[in-house]
C-alpha cells in the first residue's frame, strides 16, 4: 500500500515537469498548396476585403445618458451658486433679526 501511495505522489509531483516537454512532430509536413488552392484563397481574401469596404461607416457610439449627465453636472453648479446667495441673504437677515 505504501508503494502505491509513493507512486501516486511521485506522479503528481512529476506531472508539471512532464507538461513542459516540447511536442515533437515526427510526421512529415503536409505538401504545399497547389496553384488552384492559392488562387481560391486569394479570391476569398479579395471577396472578404471587398465586403468590408461595403460596410457603411459607423456613427459615434450613442450615449443615452449623456444628456442626463451633462445636465446633472451643470444643474448642481447652478444650484450651488444660487444656494450660496440664499444662504448669505438668510444669514444676513437672521443676524439683523437678533
**Helix percentage:** over 70%
**Strand-and-helix sequence, N→C?**
HHH
Counted by DSSP, the helix tally is 3
Radius of gyration: 38 Å
Sum up the overall morphology in one term. Answer: flat
| SS-derived structural category | mainly alpha
The beta-strand count equals 0
Low-confidence stretches: none
Percent of sequence in beta strands? under 5%
Largest β-sheet summary:
none
Mean pLDDT: 74
Describe the structure.
The chain has 98 residues and is an all-alpha fold. It has helices spanning 2-19, 35-54, 66-97. The longest helix has 32 residues, at 66-97. The mean pLDDT is 74.
Question: What topology emerges from the helices and strands here?
Answer:
Blueprint: H1 2-19, H2 35-54, H3 66-97
Amino acid at each position: 500500500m505504501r508503494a502505491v501511495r509513493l507512486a501516486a505522489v511521485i506522479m503528481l509531483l512529476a506531472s508539471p515537469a512532464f507538461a513542459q516537454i516540447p511536442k515533437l512532430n515526427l510526421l512529415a509536413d503536409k505538401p504545399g498548396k497547389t496553384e488552384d488552392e492559392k488562387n481560391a484563397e486569394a479570391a476569398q481574401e479579395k471577396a472578404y476585403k471587398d465586403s468590408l469596404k461595403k460596410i457603411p461607416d459607423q456613427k459615434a457610439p450613442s450615449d443615452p445618458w449623456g444628456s442626463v449627465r451633462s445636465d446633472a453636472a451643470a444643474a448642481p453648479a447652478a444650484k450651488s451658486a444660487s444656494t450660496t446667495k440664499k444662504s448669505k441673504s438668510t444669514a444676513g437677515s437672521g443676524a439683523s433679526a437678533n
